[in-house]
User: What shape does this take?
Amino acid sequence: MEYSLEEIVQLSGLSVDTIRYYQTLRLIPPPAHRGRKAVYDDKHRDRLRIIRRASEQGLSLRVTKDLLSKHERLESNRELLSAVQKQLAVPCYTSADMARLLEIPQRLLRLIESRGLADVLDESNGPLRYSEEDLRIGRDALKLLKCGFPLGRLLPVAIKHDRATRKTATAAIALFHKRVRSGRSGAHREEAEQAANLFQEIFPIVTSLVAHHFQRVLVSEALKQLKREGQEETLAVARQSIGKVWASLPIGQGSKDSSSLAQE
Assistant: This one.
């Protein structure tokens, strides 16, 4: 279908200047012409919608251009990116926004970022972006500091955990691509949608398993240390309260884990 410049502006929600700017960057191909009149088609419409959505989600124009240039992988990359972003809650904040909302000095956030503890889906050199979930986690982290955890001691532990987690995640993703996604055959678009749907189904299962395991290990090691130090009275109180703590965690409800750990 063909569209005039005015129609493509209305369909894309972008201004005339923005569309022309994208043309100069070769994010979209130049329009055809009927005399002096520019004529756009469905490909222009779809690309402009993708670019606008990517921009709203914090992707730089350079990364967007790279995705659009990979014609054979476009649908798969776009669908998988969409699946990931839906799971991570996409409303984005800049570093300055996060520092203001968390009421912390921006230099503290820059310190955390420089240690590799802040991650984003966009791997370009653009500014870091944070989601609503990142904001919630940041507020929880501040509670740890208020409980008495020294930042200087907490950061090395977080870095060590981050490195171990990345190795595990890399291995899990490789396994997904080799053993799960590669077994899905069909038309390119159909295969991409299958992979995205499968990822959406697997994502909460995997993260739940990882969180569940870490919670068990954390509780178990805490009880073992109390036992080694001979703090019998504290250990007894901890064993009594562990069931209540576990029950307050969504993935611990209805399980027998609290009783088994309390006996250790």
Remarks:
- The domain at 1-86 is CATH 1.10.1660.10 (Multidrug-efflux Transporter Regulator; Chain: A; Domain 2).
